[in-house]
Design goal:
Elements: H1 12-20, H2 27-46, E1 59-68, E2 75-85, E3 90-94, H3 101-108, E4 116-121, E5 124-125, H4 131-141, E6 142-145, H5 157-162, H6 174-184, H7 200-212, E7 218-222, H8 230-245, E8 249-253, H9 257-260, E9 265-270, E10 273-276
The structure holds adenosine-5'-triphosphate and magnesium ion (MG).
Magnesium ion binds near residues 101, 102 and 222.
């Protein structure tokens, strides 16, 4: 069966070539996320270093706004979204279908541009960066698990995973790490199959291995256990949890309570804003998002 590509997700032909080459409406919290990010930026400037400081947030986003359409048909999808994620943190984002979760992850990962606001990853600007700078940043610092996987159809599962390990700037040992991830995710017996020969859950696990192979500072995972049974889902959640425990920052979009249970923080995206939440089964729903707010509201 052909891969289902979301109309709202960047197409594979756009995503991979580009890749290769707070959380609350309260002004106080938005302000404090801004201060955390600004202090981190200042610290880096005063130390005249460009490398990421271990104690600074890995991800800093503030004032993010995304509007689709124009004039009377304009819709505010994200408004004043602020989020700072520290090394070692696993943050889950929940919200109704259509609330903008994938859009938010795309903005955080530099795959789409906000209409306002800024994003930094590891102290490097995502917003305002050139395509060349963005490519390097994504390759070196961000692992992205797409909601609809986006494996390259002409490569088998293992080759998809090892591709980032063979790009310039890949860390030493990435190849070995990729093979270990394939084993850990139970994919060895299907490693030589092409994406169209794999089940949805197998494709999802290859996509997760690919996101982690280059040992990124930041992992952005869009519904990473959406297609998995309980056992495979638990292996993936263990992997994301240990990725965070080893010092990475992880942001995971999910509809599943077993995933939010592993997170340090759970944020709910609703009407364009992020709210802290104590997720329970009742807080996570698949129902469609009600009508978005018009720009004039
Ligand atoms: N390029 C676009 N042009 C117009 N509308 C768009 C565009 N991209 C996304 N949208 C709209 O933004 C809304 C949010 O889409 P998004 O994919 O971010 O939702 P989501 O929260 O990830 O949903 P799901 O849980 O179903 O994956 C949808 O109503 C979608 O139609
Ligand atoms: Mg989505």
């Amino acid at each position: 069966m052909p891969l289902k590509l979301s109309a709202t997700e960047p197409s594979i032909t756009r995503v991979w070539p580009r890749w290769l080459a707070a959380d609350t409406r309260s002004r106080g919290t938005i302000w404090s996320v801004g201060v955390v990010c600004a202090v981190a930026r200042l610290t880096r400037v005063t130390r005249l270093r460009t490398a990421h400081q271990p104690s600074a947030p890995v991800l800093c986003a503030s004032g993010l706004r995304k509007v689709y359409g124009e004039g009377r048909s304009a819709r505010v999808l994200l408004d004043e979204v602020a989020l700072a994620v520290a090394p070692g943190e696993l943050v889950a984002v929940v919200g109704r279908s259509g609330s903008g979760k994938s859009t938010l992850l795309h903005l955080l990962g530099g795959l789409d541009h906000p209409d306002a606001g800024r994003v930094e990853v590891g102290g490097r600007p995502v917003t305002g960066a050139s395509e060349r700078e963005l490519s390097a940043l994504r390759r070196e610092s961000i692992g992205f698990v797409f909601q609809f996987f986006h494996l390259l159809p002409e490569l088998d599962g293992e080759a998809n995973v090892l591709l980032p390990a063979r790009l310039p700037g890949a860390p030493a040992g990435a190849d070995r790490r990729g093979r270990a991830l394939i084993d850990r995710l139970g994919l060895r017996s299907v490693a030589r199959l092409a994406p169209h020969q794999l089940s949805g859950g197998e494709q999802q696990r290859f996509a997760i291995a690919r996101a982690l192979v280059a040992d990124p500072l930041l992992v952005l995972a869009d519904e990473p256990i959406g297609n998995l049974d309980a056992a495979a889902g638990s292996v993936v959640l263990d992997l994301l949890r240990s990725s965070a425990d080893e010092g990475r920052a992880v942001v995971m979009v999910t509809h599943q309570a077993e995933a939010t249970a592993r997170a340090d923080r759970v944020l709910r995206l609703e009407h364009g804003r992020l709210f802290p939440t104590h997720a329970s089964g009742a807080a996570i729903t698949d129902h469609a998002e009600p009508a978005p707010r018009p720009v004039s509201e």
